[in-house]
UniProtKB/TrEMBL annotation:
<keyword id="KW-0560">Oxidoreductase</keyword>
<dbReference type="InterPro" id="IPR041654">
    <property type="entry name" value="StyA_sbd"/>
</dbReference>
<dbReference type="GO" id="GO:0004497">
    <property type="term" value="F:monooxygenase activity"/>
</dbReference>
<protein>
    <submittedName>
        <fullName>Monooxygenase</fullName>
    </submittedName>
</protein>
<dbReference type="InterPro" id="IPR036188">
    <property type="entry name" value="FAD/NAD-bd_sf"/>
</dbReference>
<keyword id="KW-0503">Monooxygenase</keyword>
<dbReference type="Pfam" id="PF17885">
    <property type="entry name" value="Smoa_sbd"/>
</dbReference>
<feature type="domain" description="Styrene monooxygenase StyA putative substrate binding">
    <location>
        <begin position="143"/>
        <end position="249"/>
    </location>
</feature>
Amino acid sequence: MATVGIVGTGIAGTHLGLLLRAAGIDVTLYTEQPAEALTRARLLNTVAHHHPLLKRERTLGVHHWPAEEFGYGAHHHHVGGPEPIRFTGRFAHPSCAVDHRLYLPRLIGDLAERGGRVEVAEVGPRDLAALAARHDLLVVATGRGPLSGLFPRRPEHSPHDAPRRLLCAGLFTGIRPPAQAGVSISIAPGAGELLEIPLLSRHGPVTALLFENVPGGDLAGLSSSDDPGLFAKQALEKLRVHHPDTFERVDPGEFALTHPLDLMRGAVTPSVREDWLALGDGRFALAAGDAHVVVDPVMGQGANIASYSAAVIASHAAEDTVYDELFCRRVARAREETLLAASSWTNLMLDPPAYVHDLFAGLARDQARADEFTTNFDHPGRQWRALATERRVRNFLGS
């Protein structure tokens, strides 16, 4: 039986493990900490899971939080400026957001129940050759810690050498949801963006606020306070100034972080890295998840393309049991268009050319196009083909 080792327990690693077990392939998942430790960790992220990922969960029998009950069906957009733009786009199928401190331990447990081995071990670059000798294929699905930067950057697809936003996210009470359940996306030109996300946490349904702050802008200082009460006070004032559509639904007396650990800060440098690394003796490490493609979370694509990448690897692993360089090349070709599209689309929105404002203005006038734009969050390849150039945007709005 073929055997695959997976380093990392994020979306890419857990989904790949489950998909491989469904195909009858032996799996060992290497994690730096026990699954139960994740439940006590600081907020990991505020990611949304879109329809293709949820469909994958249903197929695998791990759709533990049905989107029909816990999900949402729309994006509400607000673009600030002298003449604000507002529009709502509706998904063809609902999306859903679940705290990964609930989500990942549950799926790791599912994998163990299905015969996957879970080993707690710190893995560094010097450990890869030894791990590869234990498996027919080694997949590195984490870009953190000692394995960060393991795979060389592809400069032609990695235009940034520093973060474009300072990230600050928290789980809050005291925010009335919009009339139609959905994610609110607020753009404050020159200052940054806000994603307001209905999220299921250990406290039940809460509101996640993800501030995407431009370095040096008025919102940048929001990323500095460690005091939960002071942070909430500062966040409320920044909502008032820069994100009025969310602010008007806040009850100041109830607005608060749900727990001190429900606050996260950080920054990511968007990048695309090489697909594989030769480890000697005919064995290879294949990149997945953040080890391969890192996108800023502003377009909510990270977890979704990580799951997509895992599905591509699993489908090829099931049909080809020789995991050599040819196998790695085939995987790279099969997933490249979608992954590069998600990366390019996200980078476009971080540094939007003038025609993006025209796009938003056009979407506010055309409900059918607004719905199509929103549903394309499920399909980054389709979205990029629509938005890549001014000519394509004009065609999209006029189609």
